[in-house]
Here is the input.
Amino acid sequence: MPIDATEQARMIRDREASPSELVDEAIERLERLNPQLNAVIHPLLDEARQIAAGPLPDGPFTGVPFLVKDLSCYMKGVPVHEGMRALKDAGYVADHDMWLAQRFRQAGFVILGRTNAPELGILPTTEPVAYGATHNPWDLDRSPGGSSGGSAAAVAAGIVAVAHANDGGGSIRIPASHCGLVGLKPSRGRVSLAPDFGDVLLGLVIELAVTRSVRDAAAILDAVHGPAPGDPYAAPSPARPYREEVGADPGRLRIGISTQPVGGQFESHPECVAAAEAAGELLEELGHHVEPSYPAAFDNPEEITNFLVRWTAGVAWNVKYWGEKIGRQLGPDDVEPCTWALAEQGNTHTAADLLRALEQAQASTRRIAGWWSEEGYDLLLTPTCAEPPSRLGEFDAPPDNPVAPLMRAIPFGTFTAGCNTTGQPAISLPLHQTADGLPVGVQLVAAYGREDVLLRIAAQLETARPWADRTPAVHAEAGAGQAS
Here is the structure.
């Protein structure tokens, strides 16, 4: 059975293994499995060996191998291409560390490389033209999700136990769901984007990781949370370390469950409905009260409109930002058709449009928060996605419809994107599998700042329905026949 990062760190502390041994083993797995997965696109193997052999910070994960997504989290002297051909062709590398990269290193992680991501993190699949598709280790013809698909595929396959991920509309939780992992999206402002940004997409984006265990998610959050000087806002400080919430009694919680997309846009896949309903039954067995309910404000059609104004404006900003970084204006031949179409749409918004979208999103956030604070709910339970993992190629853009990939994305972000608008913490847990063995995640959402509640209930579910022994066909521990 695969071991998590917390156990790897214990082995190093107790001298049952050395950092070099764990790093060498991870590199062997990477070199053996990555040709099938295309999860790691910027390997830093020699550097990792040198770091593992030298003095390491005394942190909670000293000597544990780690991967960083190639989107944000810049590292000095290391490529940052964000799925873009223009940055790849320019050979762009970062000239500084972001605060988060420093925090990962201070925690003791040894970084083996950067993982594949869709262009600018736009889609919930990882198939950038610049680097090609990442394959889901559960089924190589399937998507691992996005935009943290490279990280999720690497963790699911056992190359590393944990990897960096970020989330602007579901990009931690969707890959976690597709790859059978834990994906915790923290509260807005919990993890700093310093020194480069105060926020990204007006607060939609947050950073953390994909993990195998709840305790790893908690310990990583302990290691990296907290504001940096000059941050525009910060989440409230936790009452105690997050790792102490793992195993703590969550009490008897009132939980609303919703299995269909808000507004009746379409119906969820039966496997996704079954996943959430089974989780609701399990929560009832554990002593919680579960009833059909969700914040009515999610049904407001302005939710989608406001999100898309902010999102498309962000794409336009990104295209301009990276053009300035490489010293030339980017055009339609430099990016994928969907990216350019969204950037063009973003450029049609006025400053007043953007401020209006932000104002409406903040008003909606207040209404949605009332479901927790005024109606007395502790958690919202949903499927993570409205569909199981898609097949690779389903997000290709036909020449006459460049935004088709975004339309195809809707079922995958329909339950996740609202939490980016409100800034609330949410977690995807690998509690279900389809009849043909594909992972399907279940999402739990807590009130703003209440990662403690999420971690308590997630750990309780992990104990009641363990998933640690589930591994995909393409896995470090699989036989030669399985991983071929």
Summary: The longest helix spans residues 302-326. DSSP finds 15 helices and eleven strands in the chain. The chain has a mean pLDDT of 96. The CA atoms of residues 262 and 373 lie 21 Å apart.
